[in-house]
Amino acid sequence: MRMPTSTDDERESAIDAAALAIRRGGLVVIPTDTVYGVSVDAFDADAVRELLEAKGRGRDMPLPVLISAATTADALALALPGYARTLMEHFWPGPLTIVGKQQPSLQWDLGDTRGTVAIRMPDHPIALDLLERTGPLAVSSANLTGRPAATDAEQAEEMLGELVSIIIDAGTSPGEQASTIIDVTGVQGRVLRRGALSLEELNAVLEPHGASLIDEG
């Protein structure tokens, strides 16, 4: 079901319906500041498995997690280094995904993570409102594997319509590039995937603090 958000009432109804669907284990397409994403409760292993199957994505490509507040990162990732916090302070909410060491106490299954967790705080009011109601969501771009990520609800519906419970329609996404992914598990950060933020933008923030990233993207 595609739900519009052009009025306050429509937006509230869409977020309510999406939160309920997620609590029930459903897949929900949400707008973000980059591209549209398909999301599930990060702690619902069955729902995560359904999302991977819907995307045609294997466990060797584990899902990142969206959060509504930067403080939540410490509940999910262990001992984030100082340079990671500097990047979070400057670029969250925004198109930056941080890959850190997973907190060992977490009871979830996002795929073959090898002890890591990828976290992002999106800069989109609807996504943030939903996340405040649901808690962390496992998410992937709203597309079938091998096809371009959806930048509007119509594209998401064409690819995933029969597989998801709700599609929140917030118009065309403001950004067409996916987030930049940074590995922060080591002493020096590494760019794993180039995206909306360039290496130059990231290093411009880090260099005054005596840090820099290696580009492996």
Structural description of this entry:
The protein has 217 residues and is α/β, with parallel strands linked by helices. It is built from seven helices and twelve strands. Strands 1, 2, 3, 4, 5, 6, 7, 8, 9, 10, 11 and 12 form a twelve-stranded mixed β-sheet that branches. β2 and β3 (37-41) form a beta hairpin.
List the helices and strands and how they pair.
Layout: E1 2-4, H1 8-23, E2 28-30, E3 37-41, H2 45-55, E4 65-66, H3 73-76, E5 77-78, H4 82-91, E6 96-102, E7 116-120, H5 125-134, E8 137-141, H6 153-160, E9 166-169, E10 180-183, E11 190-193, H7 199-206, E12 214-215
Parallel strand pairs: 1-9, 2-9, 4-7, 6-10, 11-12
Antiparallel strand pairs: 2-3, 3-8, 4-8, 5-6, 6-7, 10-11
Helix pairs in contact: 1-5
And the CATH topology? DHBP synthase
Query: Measured on Cα atoms, how large is the radius of gyration?
Result: 16 Å
State the fourth-level CATH superfamily: DHBP synthase
The DSSP helix count reads 7
What is the class in the CATH system?
Answer: Alpha Beta
Q: Which term fits the overall shape?
A: globular
Unreliable spans are: none
Number of domains: 1
Q: What CATH architecture do you see?
A: Alpha-Beta Complex
Q: In total, how many beta strands?
A: 12
Question: What helical percentage do the residues reach?
Answer: 25-40%
Measure the end-to-end span. 36 Å
Structural classification: alpha/beta
- How much of the sequence lies in strands comes to 15-25%
What is the average per-residue confidence, as pLDDT, rounded to a whole number?
95
- Output the helix-strand order: EHEEHEHEHEEHEHEEEHE
Major β-sheet annotation? 12 strands, mixed
